[in-house]
Design goal:
Blueprint: E1 2-5, E2 11-13, H1 24-37, E3 46-50, E4 66-68, E5 74-76, E6 79-86, E7 92-96, E8 101-103
Antiparallel strand pairs: 1-2, 1-3, 4-6, 5-6, 6-7, 7-8
Amino acid sequence: MQTKIIQSGHVIEETYEIDNSVSEKVYAENLINNYNSTLWPTESPRELLSVIVIEENEESRKERSWEKQNLVTIRRAGQLYDTYKCTCCGITAKRYGVGQIVHDKR
């Protein structure tokens, strides 16, 4: 999904894995609404720009076992996040707010 930080206009692309029991757009809207309703005083709300569905076959899906890497939530460029690493494959990711974990781009 693609979101925009309203205050700065910065566009963010995030990838999420969801089950098929909910529409992708509804899931994204709920995620952004939840994020916006739980902001810290210094955080800016986000606006949903687009939702793109990337189909995966069952063989390409892997169960992840995330382990938090930092002791204290990191604050950088006005954003708060935690860093994670998968204990199975070593991929790294960040979790912003209370949303799902977003894989780092490599």
